[in-house]
Structure prediction request, 195 residues.
Amino acid sequence: MKYSVEVLSASPQAWIDAVMNDFNSFLQDHADCERKASAMAMSLIAKYPDRDFIIPDLIDTALEELEHFQQVYEVMQSKGVPLPSKMEPDLYIHKLMEEAKGGSVDSRFLIRLLLGSVIECRGCERFKLVADNLEDPDLKRFYKELWASEAKHGNIYVKLALNYFDEDLVYSKLDELMHKEAAILANLKIRPALH
Prediction:
């Protein structure tokens, strides 16, 4: 069974150009995204403690995302790039999370799980682009590893959803969210950030 879908729109060349032209800012944003991804996994456990099946996988995911934060921070330290005192709001995440407002508890639970997959799928696509465009062999290897990890995380969220919801519902909702994600991304300002 397929647990994830591919993103519906490729990131534009202008995005990877912005990242390569200001890689330090990208690193700062990337670190922040890893921290938030860890918190998102733990927040699902906090919001839905009665959904026992999600807990082991989401603990593992949260720990892995936190480890990625540590790894990005180490790269930043080696380059003399500080953690910023304040990060710009992530409009991409904000607009996606609006999809999880309202509706029943079950509906919100499903959408939150699937948004985890959508966000990880986009991260996977973008980390591959970063890896393909980096010249530093250590950084290239690091982003290739992250690319594989993001793909796995995207699959985990769909697998968790399929444990609680009908397959047709999961995949129709996932397709709907992927279309909304593509539209959101198309209307965002290009910047040296993951989203």
Remarks:
- The longest helix spans residues 105-133.
- The mean pLDDT is 93.
- Residues 42 and 183 are 28 Å apart (CA to CA).
- The chain has one domain: 13-186.
